[in-house]
């Protein structure tokens, strides 16, 4: 689809605010020739910075305390494409080109879109990405569909544009074919939108926001079959799909209760190859189905490198990327060059070990993916530790709770098996349970707090979300899980 | 003024968009007790980051190639208040507290507000600060006053909220008492607003945006007397003053044509003391006059450390800071922790040399200000070099241009002395001059491109802006200035 066609096709999705966003610039974009002395922009010479080099001390493995590679960022030489003179200077708002190329390579190698005219924009963390996407696409006239339980701050992102959120029923099940968005519900909702009493004040939805893999909070992953069904619905009803995927690299193999510590990622006898990881363990993005250029994918370095970097990227068709870039120009401008240089120099160091690949871009990709695989192995280990600890509690053995086994990500959800029906006042019951849990020394998040619409989801919100990501060591995680079991047992009065 | 009074007083300034911005959170803000295992937030343990330490190699002086201090940021120990485990983690949206404290100390020591209930919010560079301020205060009903020549992207910031920009006449003069905003014009404009045909479609202005010191592009600085007059006008007409001050530390002593390279900052016989710099060379902010809490001040580390850090801060009354923080929560969240840690560790290293001061906070402040003084000395040197080079051209000696001598900052403006009246088509004439300058090998910015309203300012826009900040060495700057002179001479046909 050429640019003009994209523009023609997707302009109607733009918000009123986007329409009036015109950039005023005093640059004419001339490229400096060799002999031209450029005295235009208020850029301080790099020798006016108080810093001339940075050394990064890396680690080889998660939780490794030993010395790994040391890599330097110098004023002019290293990395050749992104030294301090560039990274600490004003730089391209879309991200420095070597970082943009690296992110594009990630997309090409893992989730190559089925159309050509796509692009990448770096941003300041997925929260910033979401803001920019909703600000560009939504206004008072917009309705956004999303999973009934979600990363709840996104609701603020949507409603602050004036738009409305509509929850989609989910199947909370361990069946990998069935978990996640209830596609039939979604189909009925869209097919019958104009007859629905409940939503009669709202326009028909134009966006679906979904956390596709290891969903927050439920840990559910949309199967490829469901992705295909949902994509067809998006085509039928002309929806843009905003696919948020912070956890996509952290997928879990099935848990084996007979061999709870089994971990295909770290099996020394039969080590997983990178290709196996890429082909079998990663779930393909909606981008790979996206014949219409209607998918906006959000990735982030927060979970794969470090959240404090505030570094993420957005994949979308070139027209939409241009509109998002336009917003970046007057808001954040480029993400931190320090963050970009730290990630880039780290990936270059990882690349240096990938001697099996000829091409530097390939080495960078595979070096980075090897790190992703190591993280996935660590998260799988923690999943194993947590499951084992939960399943050995008396509360579990007495069927007081079940575990909504996650297929990826950072979160595990414990579903309370209420002795009779769900409580009349779910919020109050969960708040009381929370008090007991805190008394027992463990803090989790209550299901109802993660619902887009608490009354819509009240019956299914009787769960607790906790993370395996933050504990300092296995023992702390085990103790936390035991306290969850004990707290539930105490609360339910057994 | 207590918080409720601030809220009552300043709520009317908030935009419609601010009003509907409600945060949805799943946190209850409980502080973890010692024995509580917190499994709430999706924060990766710091040992899941691929980096465990960073060494910074600093320089002692601008343009110094030698080795200065080396300072480390480690996983847990250094800096004690901001190691990697904190700086690379999700952190406080308002900025990490040690950085917030440092910024507050800067404000207290340089421009202590005359009221108590003020606060600081870190943001991602002054462009981001501006966006957040205008987004929070402006909508379709708002009118914003600003200098007729300004950092033109700010016009996009204002108009994208739906608000309108109204230019204020400036006095472009070297007289330090008279330069900058034409206060009489401003007074007439506000006093007679409702009778003005030209602006009858616009509401009365509620904001003044001004670059107070070393204004971009003019290099003008508002005298204290003018600041007092403008503040009284702001009181009379109930304006919020948005004071943008990226260049405030880079003030120039008067130029001495008899002794062009004289530089009070670097005079080895009579070195300037820090107190002299603070008392005599820095101009006091509007904050120091702000009995009503109506001033919002924007500072940035872009010019004082490095632009690529994307790190800045906003000073305002606590109510307004809360509203800005509310916007940060759903947009950028915290600025890059890597950027914050780099600045913080650098300042700690600078502090270690300030042994004359007992208090660590004082050492940090004075260490930083000593760096600011060195930068001011470098910029003064470059101003001297550029002036000398301009004044020795034949074009200057033939009165073909004059120099609008700047009192601070990065920019010098060369005013064309048109042989007769200003040209009928100023844009076209300047564009033609630009072509000649580029042919002569120098690129500058044309005055009309920096006007808020080109037709309003057309007669006074016959100038060229260039920067002393970016040249690699004095010789390049000298050559650039000579080319400007030669280009003007060729263009005017002498």
TrEMBL record, chains A, B:
This is Aminotransferase class I/classII large domain-containing protein. The keyword Disulfide bond does not apply. InterPro entries: Aminotransferase_I/II_large, Class-I_PLP-dep_aminotransf, PyrdxlP-dep_Trfase, PyrdxlP-dep_Trfase_major. Belongs to the class-I pyridoxal-phosphate-dependent aminotransferase family. Keywords: Aminotransferase, Pyridoxal phosphate, Transferase. GO terms for biological process: aromatic amino acid family catabolic process; lysine biosynthetic process via aminoadipic acid; tyrosine biosynthetic process. Signal peptide: none annotated. The keyword Metal-binding does not apply. It comes from the Eukaryota. It comes from Torulaspora globosa. GO terms for molecular function: 2-aminoadipate transaminase activity; aromatic-amino-acid transaminase activity; pyridoxal phosphate binding. Residues 119-483 form the Aminotransferase class I/classII large domain. Its cofactor is pyridoxal 5'-phosphate. CDD domains: AAT_like. It holds the Pfam family Aminotran_1_2.
């Amino acid at each position: 689809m050429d640019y003009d066609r994209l523009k023609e096709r997707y302009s109607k999705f733009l918000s009123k605010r986007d329409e009036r966003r015109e950039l005023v610039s005093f640059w004419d974009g001339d490229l400096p020739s060799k002999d031209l002395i450029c005295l235009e922009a208020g850029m301080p010479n790099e020798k006016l910075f108080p810093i001339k080099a940075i050394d990064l001390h890396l680690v080889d493995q998660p939780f490794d305390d030993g010395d790994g590679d040391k890599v330097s960022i110098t004023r002019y030489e290293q990395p050749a494409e992104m030294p301090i003179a560039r990274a600490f200077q004003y730089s391209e708002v879309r991200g420095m080109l070597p970082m943009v190329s690296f992110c594009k390579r990630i997309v090409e190698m893992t989730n190559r879109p089925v159309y050509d005219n796509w692009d990448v924009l770096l941003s300041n963390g997925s929260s910033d990405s979401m803001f920019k996407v909703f600000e560009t696409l939504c206004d008072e006239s917009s309705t956004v569909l999303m999973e009934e339980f979600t990363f709840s701050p996104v609701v603020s992102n949507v409603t602050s544009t004036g738009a409305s959120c509509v929850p989609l029923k989910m199947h909370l099940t361990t069946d990998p074919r069935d978990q996640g968005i209830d596609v039939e519900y979604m189909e009925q909702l869209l097919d019958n939108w104009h007859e629905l009493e409940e939503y009669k004040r709202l326009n028909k939805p134009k966006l679906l926001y979904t956390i596709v893999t290891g969903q927050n909070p439920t840990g559910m992953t949309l199967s490829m079959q469901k992705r295909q069904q949902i994509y067809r619905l998006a085509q039928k009803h002309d929806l843009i799909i905003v696919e948020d995927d912070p956890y996509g690299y952290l997928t879990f193999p099935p848990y084996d209760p007979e061999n709870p510590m089994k971990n295909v990622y770290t099996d020394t006898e039969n080590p997983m190859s990178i290709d196996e990881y890429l082909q079998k363990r990663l779930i393909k993005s909606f981008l790979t189905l996206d014949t219409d250029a209607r998918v906006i994918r959000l990735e982030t370095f927060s979970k794969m490198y470090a959240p404090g970097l505030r570094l993420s990227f957005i994949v979308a068709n070139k027209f939409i990327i241009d509109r998002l870039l336009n917003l970046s120009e007057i808001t954040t401008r480029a993400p931190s060059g320090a963050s970009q240089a730290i990630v880039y120099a780290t990936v270059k160091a990882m690349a240096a070990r990938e001697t099996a690949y000829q091409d530097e871009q390939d080495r960078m990709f595979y070096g980075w993916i090897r790190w992703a695989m190591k993280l996935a192995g660590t998260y799988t280990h923690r999943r194993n530790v947590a499951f084992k600890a939960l399943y050995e509690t008396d509360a579990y053995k007495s069927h007081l709770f079940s575990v909504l086994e996650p297929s990826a990500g950072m979160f595990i959800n414990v579903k309370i098996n209420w002795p009779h029906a769900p409580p009349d006042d779910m919020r109050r019951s969960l708040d009381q349970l929370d008090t007991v849990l805190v008394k027992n020394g463990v803090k989790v998040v209550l299901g109802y707090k993660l619902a887009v619409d608490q009354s819509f989801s009240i019956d299914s919100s009787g769960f607790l979300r906790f993370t395996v990501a933050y504990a300092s060591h296995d023992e702390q995680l085990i103790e936390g899980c035991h306290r969850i079991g004990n707290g539930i047992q105490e609360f339910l009065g057994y």
